[in-house]
């Protein structure tokens, strides 16, 4: 296993290219949306899990980690990614062997598992906003806390661990990454060398030690009590908004089990939970129109996450019963209009066929 890890870390670009090619080819597998879909979905799930494992190996490169990190003690992001890769296979297998109605029991179990893992991640990481449902570690500093590693002007403090993916995505935004602290240590070493009369060899040892073992900020992880005492109502509302976002898919599936996928009740209840959670989070973070009530800043990645969650609302157009009553009719009318046009008509037909096939799967349109 160690040999495989070393190979992946040395050839990360080659690995990413292979993964992209393999994942793209899965859409060309025969019987993609038919009764014999188990085989293609099993291949897709296997490739997805391999991709998640490789990403975890790259992000956990020892040279880019702090050895005293507690956030990496359990691979939450890897676990969530694996569950998301398996959920469609679970749906297909359950429908094949147990029927369309009983499959919702298995989907509910899958969603409940994801809820538990995400809540554990939310708790153990100090109630920080989950990025991409917990698949992406939230390690970016808040906007007003970037000037100092000990600053706590925002809702979160910098963690002691920044994975390799963080260094790649934000190379210039964190002056306290490995390179920045090494340069800082060199600068301090040069200043001290001119002011003290210690032996030269001692300075060389100190320099090497500063580069190899850069100082790690002392981090206090938030708890519910600390959030309540420091942020008051806004902190509690933030936690409530995140919990609503995490539990929304599970609530949706429970109401589908009770009323059926064609009923409006699950659709409206899920939308109401989404709107309520986003409204509470926006108010708590001041990311909406309530600027005067702003109590803490959120990082750029957290702002992008809120935008991503709003974009996910478009999936409600693809969920039954709205899709069956409204969206499908619009797609079919568009297809009829463009059908006489060469090439465009053919491509439109295939795209609509793909959309209609994907819509039949809960996991493709769940947004969870």
UniProtKB/TrEMBL annotation:
GO biological process: fatty acid biosynthetic process; peroxisome organization
InterPro entries: Pex16 (IPR013919)
Keyword NAD set for record: no
Subcellular location: Peroxisome membrane
Record keywords, A-Z: Membrane, Peroxisome, Peroxisome biogenesis, Transmembrane, Transmembrane helix
Ranges where the record places region Disordered: 138-166
Residue stretches spanning the membrane: 235-255, 267-286
Pfam families noted in UniProt: Pex16
Example of a GO cellular component annotation carried by this entry: peroxisomal membrane
Family according to the record: Belongs to the peroxin-16 family.
Protein's recorded name: Peroxisomal membrane protein PEX16
């Amino acid at each position: 296993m160690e040999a495989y890890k070393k190979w992946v870390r040395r050839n990360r670009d080659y690995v990413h290219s292979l993964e992209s090619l393999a994942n793209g080819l899965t859409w060309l597998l025969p019987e993609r949306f038919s009764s014999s879909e188990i085989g293609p979905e099993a291949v897709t799930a296997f490739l997805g899990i391999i991709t998640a494992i490789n990403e975890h190996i790259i992000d956990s490169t020892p040279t880019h980690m702090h050895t005293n990190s507690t956030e990496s003690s359990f691979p939450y992001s890897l676990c969530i990614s694996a569950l998301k890769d398996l959920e469609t296979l679970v749906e297909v297998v359950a429908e094949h062997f147990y029927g369309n109605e009983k499959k919702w029991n298995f989907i509910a179990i899958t969603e409940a598992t994801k809820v538990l893992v995400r809540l554990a991640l939310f708790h153990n990481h100090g109630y920080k906003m989950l990025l991409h449902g917990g698949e992406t570690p939230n390690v970016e500093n808040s906007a007003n806390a970037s000037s100092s590693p000990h600053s706590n002007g925002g809702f979160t403090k910098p963690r002691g661990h920044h994975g390799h993916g963080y260094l790649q995505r934000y190379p210039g935004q964190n002056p306290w990454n490995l390179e920045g602290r090494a340069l800082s240590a060199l600068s301090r070493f040069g200043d001290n060398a001119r002011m003290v009369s210690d032996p030269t060899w001692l300075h060389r040892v100190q320099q090497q030690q500063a580069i190899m073992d850069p100082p790690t900020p002392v981090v206090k992880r938030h708890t519910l009590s600390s959030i309540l005492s420091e942020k008051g109502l806004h902190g509690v509302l933030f936690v409530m908004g995140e919990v609503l976002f995490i539990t929304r898919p599970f609530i949706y599936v429970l109401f589908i089990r009770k009323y059926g996928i064609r009923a409006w009740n699950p659709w409206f209840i899920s939308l109401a939970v989404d709107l309520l959670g986003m409204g509470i989070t926006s108010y708590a973070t001041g990311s909406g129109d309530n600027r005067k009530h702003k109590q803490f800043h959120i990082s750029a990645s957290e702002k992008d996450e809120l935008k991503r969650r709003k974009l996910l609302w478009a999936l409600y157009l693809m969920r039954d019963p709205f899709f069956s009553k409204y969206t499908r009719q619009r797609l079919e009318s568009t297809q009829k209009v463009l059908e006489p046009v060469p090439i465009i008509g053919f491509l439109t037909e295939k795209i609509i066929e793909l959309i209609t096939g994907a819509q039949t799967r809960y996991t493709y349109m769940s947004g969870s």
